[in-house]
Specification:
Distance between the termini: 52 Å
Oligomer: single chain
Largest sheet: 6 strands, mixed
CATH class of the largest domain: Alpha Beta
Number of strands: 23
Strand content: 15-25%
Structural class: alpha/beta
Shape: elongated
Number of domains: 3
CATH architecture of the largest domain: 3-Layer(aba) Sandwich
Strand order of the largest sheet: 10-15-14-13-11-12
Amino acid sequence: MNKKHISSALISVFDKTGLAPIIHQLNSYGVTFYSTGGTEKFIRDMGYEVTGVEDLTGYPSILGGRVKTLHPKVFGGILNRQEVSGDQTALEQFEIPQIDLVIVDLYPFEDTVAVGGSEQEIVEKIDIGGIALIRAAAKNFKDTFCVSDKNDYQDFLDILIQSNGATNIGQRKKYSVKAFQTSSHYDAAIFNHFNQEEEVLKLSVKTAKTLRYGENPHQKGQFFGPLSDLMEQIHGKEISYNNLLDIDAAVNLMLEFYEGDASFAILKHNNACGFATRSKLKQAYVDALSGDPISAFGGVLITNKTIDLDTANEIHSLFCEVVIAPKYEEDALKLLMKKKNRVLLIQKDTPLPSITYRSCLNGILVQDRDLKTDLLEELVYITDKKPSAQEVDDLIFASKICKHTKSNTIVLAKDSQLLASGTGQTSRVDALNHAIEKAKHFNFDLNGAVMASDAFFPFPDCVEVAGKVGISSILQPGGSIKDQLSIDYCNQNDLSMVFTGTRHFKH
């Protein structure tokens, strides 16, 4: 398996956490240490001999530390091919030591950006020597072992102990791949920070989770991203691919209602099948469930408030896949945890990315996240009759739900409760008819209800149908060449309608 014993190591790291046990172990094998600056002092303070890179190269660190390892005596020791006689002759001729192991990390560029460092501070955190050392060692994996991430220290230490200081080609190649991942991610972060004009997409996500399967059992699935930054799972089975899609839809929807009274949403297949806002959380849940108790089976539940025991008692009788809340009372949590597979999540106060990505054909679609929420002060009153204050509140409520429902969509609401929605239909009037049928099925009175549409009405048929079942006020973006026909019908039939000027397609 092409085993090679480590006899020499170049170690130069910014963060020395977890490094000491590796130094101890390498020293026990008689490994020669080469190092720089703070790491050199760290090794020497541990009581071990170490040769400074300055002593090896005969050149001091210059330009404020910008140049210290960039020298043939360093890179020749890393890049030489041990099976090539000419390479070995060159090492002898120029007195270049063999370097079998490179342990290097990189200046914390992303961390410096994240804490709001100045441009000069950020620029100085662009590593040059470190990235070159990592690439050189990774390139020469046949002979050189490269450790580029402190998260791998324990695994590397285990390799050392198990093989008495030797490595095999499989291990070196595996760590070479990790090293190139480190360098490519680093470069992508730098590019994305400074890029202002280039229409180039570079994505790099270091955190990955293999899922049980994809959308269906015959499909493989993975999630890339730091999910733990947004959610803490405190109970239940492993989150699935479809769970994640529903969680994403739920989180985006509830962000529209995060402030104010208690809101509860129930989602199924990325759409809200129940939603209500009330002064008490329990009532919000009960009214949300009444919107469609059939679809709620196996759904995802989310709220903007701490789940108390009274609310948990109501939830517990429902089979649901996921419950999401900012907090849980202790007694409520104990009750909800009695169903072992039920996923319980705590949503953290972490903003979602401002850009969304989606695979399409042989490429990727990129767009700004839809952060536009229809506001009261932006409504345009275009009919003779104006909506009442309660109707306006319900129109805004319905609009927020409509924005997060698959197109074509119609949302019917009344008294801050979702009555029904028509989702993902091929025509808008089909969406409306579906919503009406669903509302009637669950015995909702549509008299005085409001209707929201994600896009304009191409014909007046939707307002005609809505008016005939008792809907009293309508919200839509407007913009159709036949808007006047819809306005005329409303004026002739004592309906109010407002324009928002903003379409909210969601395909």
